[in-house]
């Protein structure tokens, strides 16, 4: 039996963030509302879905929303969830009242919520860069939270997962062509947003939404690209295109190994009524090359049951 892309067809979803816990893969997504406000991304809450076989999915509904975050008023954007010491932490970018974008943390005793807001921003620089958090706990127990558009930044999370090492502070990754390829985003690299940070064997990966180089007046949609490093904080080396750009202006990566298979989650605008503001989550299986590189992954119809 095979799944069918988009894997979620009951509502518009985007920004997929998989998390494997036990024998289950949990998938956290944003939610594009049917009715737009001001012809822009209209997003108020986050959803969770789960599967044990990559074909049959359980819909856990809305697990966290702007209504749960008193200090935020808009833009429930791309999240990621992480478990530590039996607690689950959902990192979410939101628009702060009378401020810029900031990163909220929802906390729960279960992977499917409900999540309760920390009560204040975890990261709040007062600008618009603090979006799309990606979290990873390394083998030595150090947790990292990367984020950012147009720059890639990170903090060292404390063991409580709701604060960071302020003596180190917020670190900025040098946005170089060697690290992220030559592209048309604001830094002159391909790096745009939506980082996804993880480790495979002895190599660290940074997968991200990217903009290819464009001549003046040329329009490019986001594709997915990746960089690697032998260290969790770089320096990063550009690895190439992970998924070619499609008709939807945005894309967003989420990667997970589950029951011996490697999966890339992404989004398109393939559902009926789809648009750059009405997106839908999909998944493709892929394999790593012997040297750790990844051959460009094609969009597909679905994946096999496991």
What key attributes describe this structure?
mainly beta, 5-stranded antiparallel sheet, 1 helix, 20 strands
Structural topology:
Elements lengths: L12 E9 L2 E8 L13 E7 L5 E9 L6 E3 L5 E5 L2 E10 L4 E8 L7 E2 L16 E4 L5 E5 L5 E5 L13 E2 L4 H4 L10 E10 L2 E8 L12 E7 L7 E7 L10 E5 L2 E8 L11 E7 L20
Antiparallel strand pairs: 1-2, 2-3, 3-4, 5-7, 6-7, 7-8, 8-9, 10-11, 11-12, 12-13, 14-15, 15-16, 16-17, 18-19, 19-20
Give a quick summary of the entry.
By secondary structure, this protein is mainly beta. The chain contains one helix and 20 strands.
Report on the structure:
With 306 residues, this protein is an all-beta fold. Helices cover 1% and strands 42% of the residues. It contains one helix and 20 strands. It has one helix at residues 177-180; strands at 13-21, 24-31, 45-51, 57-65, 72-74, 80-84, 87-96, 101-108, 116-117, 134-137, 143-147, 153-157, 171-172, 191-200, 203-210, 223-229, 237-243, 254-258, 261-268, 280-286. The strands form five sheets. Strands 5, 6, 7, 8 and 9 form a five-stranded antiparallel beta sheet that branches. β18 and β19 (261-268) form a beta hairpin. The longest helix has 4 residues, at 177-180. The chain is globular. The mean pLDDT is 98.
Q: Give the helix tally.
A: 1
Strand percentage lies at: 35-45%
Rg (CA only)? 18 Å
Number of strands: 20
Structural class: mainly beta
How can the largest sheet be summarized? 5 strands, antiparallel
Series of secondary-structure elements, N-terminal to C-terminal: EEEEEEEEEEEEEHEEEEEEE
The overall pLDDT, averaged over residues, is 98
Query: What is the global morphology?
Result: globular
Question: What is the end-to-end distance?
Answer: 9 Å
Low confidence ranges: none
Q: Helicity range of the residues? A: under 10%
